[in-house]
Write a structure and sequence with these properties.
Radius of gyration: 12 Å
Oligomer: single chain
Number of helices: 1
Strand content: 15-25%
Largest sheet: 3 strands, antiparallel
Length: about 60
């Protein structure tokens, strides 16, 4: 999975959506990607193990 932003903000795990804002898309029109249940489960596991609240995969 490609992350445009490594932050948790664009991910809505309740709605199972990943929002990519206008300024991050080549055509200038933001998109919403629906996440499969497996991805939502994976993100929940990552969030439980994360070292900080800001980034999904901190450096």
């Amino acid at each position: 999975m490609l992350f445009v932003s490594g932050a948790w903000r664009p991910l809505d795990l309740v709605k199972a959506e990943w929002e990519i804002p206008d300024q991050r898309v080549k055509k200038g029109k933001g998109i919403v990607i629906l996440l499969p249940s497996q991805a939502v489960e994976w993100f929940h596991m990552l969030k439980a193990r994360s070292y900080g609240p800001d980034y999904v995969l901190p450096a």
